[in-house]
Amino acid sequence: MNALQLPTEPPTLSDEKVTLAALSEADVDQLVLNCTDPTAVKWTTVPTPYTEQDARGYILEYVPKAWQEGSALNWAVHDHDGQLLGTIELARVRASAADIGLNFGPHARGTGAAVAACRLLIDYAFDELGLTHLHWIAFDGNWASVKLSWKVGFQEPVFIPGFLEQRGELWDCWHATLLASSPRTAERDWRVPTSS
Ligand SMILES: CC(C)(COP(=O)(O)OP(=O)(O)OC[C@H]1O[C@@H](n2cnc3c(N)ncnc32)[C@H](O)[C@@H]1OP(=O)(O)O)[C@@H](O)C(=O)NCCC(=O)NCCS
């Protein structure tokens, strides 16, 4: 039993740019495009190849089950025309901590949608769910991801060799943390981190 009172279905979270809501079958085609994009394949643990069947299994089975169990809380991120931009999740929910995971399609990157979605999710996780710690883990070299974590206030990332497994191989990672009590905006200058 989880100490947090977690909902078992995704609430809708919205701002002037994006809406976070439950994934549906209407998202299948764009989800396949997002998960077969080479950048997503390189920097995430999506199965590869990724088929329509994978997308249906994710939307109809994996995600609802994870919500029911309180193990991972996933949302679709849409624009206000209803187009799927990406997905975002609170992954590995344990005690009052979780990891943020996200994958946006190429059409949605560089638009500010990902930062808007992160801000909605962070406010919800801390202010509504009562989480105390959020973690951000990115493969070494995924500077778009590390930069996004910086924009929303995550602390200076720490280099962890061989921390993440991707398709049977271990990869070096950057790990950053955001506390519920911390400012949710960048408080230091941006720089690409270096491990040496
Ligand atoms: C991570 C992700 C959500 C970020 O989306 P985004 O905030 O829209 O950002 P972009 O992808 O457009 O990245 C561009 C930013 O990263 C910076 N960036 C990208 N590559 C960089 C590099 N090699 N060196 C330095 N900065 C870099 C750009 O300068 C840009 O900064 P700006 O937004 O201040 O102009 C998106 O890139 C994505 O979904 N990628 C694929 C999946 C993924 O990596 N998920 C995260 C797993 S931890």
Protein topology:
Elements: E1 13-14, E2 19-21, H1 28-36, H2 38-43, H3 52-69, E3 73-78, E4 84-94, E5 97-104, H4 113-128, E6 133-139, H5 143-151, E7 158-166, E8 169-179
Parallel strand pairs: 5-6
Antiparallel strand pairs: 1-2, 2-3, 3-4, 4-5, 6-8, 7-8
Structure description:
Helix 1 crosses helix 3. Helices cover 30% and strands 29% of the residues. It is built from five helices and eight strands, in the order E-E-H-H-H-E-E-E-H-E-H-E-E. With 196 residues, it is of the alpha+beta class. It has one domain: Gcn5-related N-acetyltransferase (GNAT) (Aminopeptidase). It has helices spanning 28-36, 38-43, 52-69, 113-128, 143-151; strands at residues 13-14, 19-21, 73-78, 84-94, 97-104, 133-139, 158-166, 169-179. The relative contact order is 0.14. Strands 1-2-3-4-5-6-8-7 form an eight-stranded mixed sheet, sandwiched between helices. One of its GO terms (molecular function) is acyltransferase activity, transferring groups other than amino-acyl groups. Residues 18-180 form the N-acetyltransferase domain. Pfam families: Acetyltransf_3.
Summarize the structure.
By secondary structure, the chain is an alpha+beta fold.
Biggest sheet statistics:
8 strands, mixed
CATH class: Alpha Beta
Assembly type of the shown chains? Answer: single chain
Looking at the structure, what is the overall shape? globular
| Average pLDDT level | 97
Unreliable stretches, pLDDT < 50, 5 or more residues? none
Report the sheet-strand fraction. 25-35%
**Ligands, deduplicated:** coenzyme A
Task: Give the total of beta strands.
Answer: 8
Helix content: 25-40%
Q: What would you report as the Rg, rounded to the nearest angstrom?
A: 16 Å
Q: Termini separation (Å)?
A: 42 Å
CATH superfamily: Gcn5-related N-acetyltransferase (GNAT)
Strand order of the largest sheet: 1-2-3-4-5-6-8-7
Q: Give the class from helix and strand content and strand pairing.
A: alpha+beta
Number of domains: 1
Q: How would you spell out the order of helices and strands?
A: EEHHHEEEHEHEE
Named at the architecture level, the CATH assignment is 3-Layer(aba) Sandwich
CATH topology: Aminopeptidase
